[in-house]
Amino acid sequence: MGSMPEPIKEEFDVLIVGAGFGALTLLHKLRKQNLKVKVYERAAASGGVWYSNTYPGARVDTDAPVYQFYDKEIWEDFTFKERYPGQKELQRYFAHVESKWHLAKDIEYNKRVEAAKFDESRHQWLVECADGTEVYTRWFVPALGFASQPYVPYLKGLSDFKGQVYHTAKWPQWGVKLKGKRVAVIGTGASGIQCIQECGKVAEHLTIFQRTPNYCLPMNQGLLNEEEEQKKKKSGAYQAAFDTSYTTFTGFTFDFYPKNTFDETPEEREALYQKLLDEGGFRIWLASYQDMLFNPEANKVAYDFWRKSVLARVKDTAKAELLAPEKAPHPFGAKRPSLEQDFYEVVSRPNIDIVDLNTTPIVEITETGIRTSADGSAHEADVIILATGFDAVTGGLTSIDIQGTDGKTVKESWANGTRTNFGLALSKFPNMFLMYGPQSPTAFANGPTCAQVQADWVDKFLKMLRKQGVTRIEPTEAAIDRWVSRVTEVWDGSLFPLAKSWYQGANIPGRKVEPLNWTGGLPPYIEMINKSIANPELEDWVMVRSV
Ligand code: NA7
């Protein structure tokens, strides 16, 4: 009796994993090349982090209008209601994009990619999903974002807790009732700050477990008036903002102030800092003196100014010292500051306590709360919120069993350090391109700007490869060596290494500490990656032209 024939597997030209900003713009572009493209998304809708992060207060930290796709057909008839839109509105936005670009027919939701292996006989990836689907794809694009793998630290006794426990990134879509509850929040990163700011207003009691203070900056939130925004669109102001975003260091509409801190008098400095603080957002971080993130003395002046602004808002001196200590625990801006609206007023309320985990670490979670080294009895809680972040930047990719041509997974290949060419491609993982991955501007650039730059590159690169009949390509080890050194050199020249941050994987115990992002600015990055398209035959890539 002959064996059963293998079921014929569906074949795609391009399979993209994830349906966030990067994936949607790439799908839209590649379809115009008449490629057969599919997106597999593990969630029930598109949006990436804007689908899963539904915790109270979740909101973007980029101000209008550059947190969106720059295609006119998308922005001409969609206006955000707020300068910094919240998660719900971003979901509404993604629905708009999907319908405008007719994307849904090429996206499969609730589809989790679990493994992928390169088939040398076909120059295709064989991709496996949790539901048993197996498909072949010539080009494979994990577009997983930098925050797709939530991190839960080991907390002794957590499973004994009789109340509710939620990680901010796995918040139930239907919400959680916090009104009148005793709430404990562990973590004060962006998610923790946003969550505290909202639930502090409704909880009966809130206890914040803080390990590192977050140097929060005033958001200067505001409503956007539809008519005014339409006028700006017509006058070219939107297009001008989009164009500008490609020319600035971080993909926003503003850039570093072209002077060093001590080139100006203390009065001039004070005036600039105040102006940037009043304008709001990341300006006091990323539109400040150009030496602020490189020179420790310059940085200290900026920190002292910021601290003074917090002390003016938090009257309780003990709380103020925890939130903005006299001695900075790390340089100003070396760890990502969060934006706030009334965080400092909320935490000043008498029903909110801050526990300093440096002096009183958590000993265990009990049935009824959290016990620290200083407590006889636990901090009682009905709900524990884990705002403990992500295995950021690399965690999404290393959690999938993607096998290279040497049989090693991405995780195994990167055991001694992350290695990519431009954050876009890996050696021994042919025909695989990353969107928003490690060693690219990723967390150091406005998300949509970076995603559009990289989608544009993948689009052009594939066009060029197809024109030349290339069916297999991977970067050389030499090109990767060069890129990793470049990323490290730029990082080491800044103050960023001095903060124990997820920017360098330092938030995950036992993980190698290394720069996970390109911190040399967006414009040089764009120039470098585009050069590699112009000269693909040069030493950077190994290409094969037939199967
Ligand atoms: P973050 O920024 O990584 O914040 C996680 C927070 O959790 C941070 O304050 C950590 O303290 C804290 N943490 C982590 N592990 C522990 C343990 N074991 N005990 C106590 N506290 C802990 O994640 P977010 O979700 O807030 O934000 C991620 C990014 O997403 C954000 O920057 C935006 O770009 C969007 P630490 O600071 O390490 O001392």
Automatic annotation (TrEMBL):
State the protein's name.
FAD/NAD(P)-binding domain-containing protein
Q: Does the keyword NADP apply?
A: yes
Q: Which Gene3D superfamilies match?
A: FAD/NAD(P)-binding domain (3.50.50.60)
Cofactors demanded by this protein = FAD
Gene Ontology MF: a single term = monooxygenase activity
Native species? Polytolypa hystricis (strain UAMH7299)
- Protein family: Belongs to the FAD-binding monooxygenase family.
Highest classification ranks of the organism: Eukaryota, Fungi, Dikarya, Ascomycota, Pezizomycotina
Ranges for domain FAD/NAD(P)-binding come to: 12-226
- On the tree of life, the source organism's domain of life is Eukaryota
NADP as UniProt keyword:
yes
Q: Which UniProt keywords apply?
A: FAD, Flavoprotein, Monooxygenase, NADP, Oxidoreductase
